[in-house]
């Protein structure tokens, strides 16, 4: 009953969001034509984002993720409630703010998604192939991973990012992620820094944060995972990196690969001190 009421409330919110979105996009387009200064356009974009924040459908993913966290699943028929996400077994609140980090039990640096895979294997008895299956959902194929990520990220809302990066492997991952950020390649000779290494850049109506600037890195990282209005799905940070690689025409970034975790480590540590505000809502 509670989930049904939540669904009805969010559906009304989504309808309102789309109505506001149409008006906001029109206002931004007019602003772009009539105002030469970038500041005014940036203000209109920010107003658009604030309008989208009412009635975030990501709450549905959070509710489903909490159910999955507590649900007994897998060959061992146990829940994930004893999974150590970095703050101790079963501790969810604040966990997103300290990841990625090195875990002694796996001997690896793990972000949230890769850590969930580890717990699904160790605690629930899934194989790695099964645990990594279906990381990104669609209209007819909802992802359990994206729901779990939404729930756990939401539990850190209002807390500050605090990735340590002091352990030797964590330092290695950070440096690897930094190299990846500046590496140019693919058919377009792009790198992450092409779009996100300078301030004041924009593609269409989307401003591109400079992830080398602490304040902009904080604002960008702490709003993922996020509900994408254009896709009708809540997306994780692993998906964000996957899609960036696709747009750069790079080889496909494997889900929970060392490369994906290294790049996440670089960006997450750069966002230290930022206050978590996810799952957010984006165009």
Description:
Mean pLDDT is about 85; it is low at about 15-35. The two termini are about 30 Å apart. Helix 10 (about 235-245) packs across helix 11. The protein has helices at about 1-35, 40-50, 60-70, 110-120, 130, 145-155, 170-180, 190-195, 215-220, 235-245, 260-270; strands spanning about 100-105, 110, 200-205, 205-210, 225-230, 235, 280. By secondary structure, the chain is mainly alpha-helical. Strands 6-5-7 form a 3-stranded mixed beta sheet. Strands 1-2 form a two-stranded antiparallel ribbon. It has one domain (about 60-283): Cytochrome c-like domain (Cytochrome Bc1 Complex, Chain D, domain 2). The protein has 11 helices and 7 strands.
- The proportion of strand residues reads 5-15%
- CATH-defined topology: Cytochrome Bc1 Complex, Chain D, domain 2
* Whole-number total of structural domains: 1
Count of DSSP E strands?
A: 7
CATH level-4 homologous superfamily: Cytochrome c-like domain
| Rounded average pLDDT | 86
Taking pLDDT < 50 over at least 5 consecutive residues as the criterion, the unreliable ranges are 14-36
Structural class, from secondary structure content? mainly alpha
Count of runs of 4 or more consecutive helical residues: 11
Largest sheet: 3 strands, mixed
- Binned, the helix content reads 40-55%
Distance between the termini: 30 Å
**The level-1 CATH class:** Mainly Alpha
From the alpha carbons, calculate the radius of gyration and give it in angstroms.
19 Å
Helix/strand order: HHHEEHHHHHEEHEEHHE
């Amino acid at each position: 009953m509670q989930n049904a009421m939540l669904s009805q409330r969010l559906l009304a919110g989504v309808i309102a969001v789309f109505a506001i979105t149409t008006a906001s996009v029109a206002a931004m387009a007019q602003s772009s034509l009539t105002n030469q200064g970038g500041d005014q356009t940036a203000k209109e974009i920010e107003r658009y984002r604030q309008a989208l924040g009412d009635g975030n459908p990501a709450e549905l993913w959070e509710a489903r993720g909490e159910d999955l966290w507590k649900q007994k699943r897998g060959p061992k028929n146990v829940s994930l409630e004893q999974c150590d996400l970095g703050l101790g077994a079963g501790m969810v609140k604040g966990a997103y703010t300290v990841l990625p980090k090195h875990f002694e039990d796996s001997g690896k640096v793990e972000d949230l998604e890769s850590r969930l895979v580890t717990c699904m294997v160790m605690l629930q008895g899934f194989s790695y192939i099964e645990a990594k299956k279906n990381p990104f959902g669609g209209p007819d194929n909802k992802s359990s991973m994206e729901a779990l990520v939404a729930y756990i990220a939401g539990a850190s809302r209002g807390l500050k990012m605090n990735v340590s990066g002091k352990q030797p492997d964590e330092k290695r991952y950070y440096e690897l992620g930094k190299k990846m950020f500046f590496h140019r390649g693919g058919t377009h000779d792009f790198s992450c820094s092409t779009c996100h290494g300078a301030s004041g850049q924009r593609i269409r109506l989307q401003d591109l944060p400079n992830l080398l600037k602490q304040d902009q890195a904080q604002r960008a990282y702490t709003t993922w995972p996020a509900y994408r209005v254009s896709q009708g799905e809540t997306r994780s940070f692993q998906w964000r990196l996957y899609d960036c690689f696709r747009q750069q025409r790079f080889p496909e970034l494997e889900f929970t690969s060392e490369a994906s975790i290294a790049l996440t480590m670089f960006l997450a540590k750069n966002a230290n001190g930022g206050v978590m505000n996810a799952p957010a809502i984006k165009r």
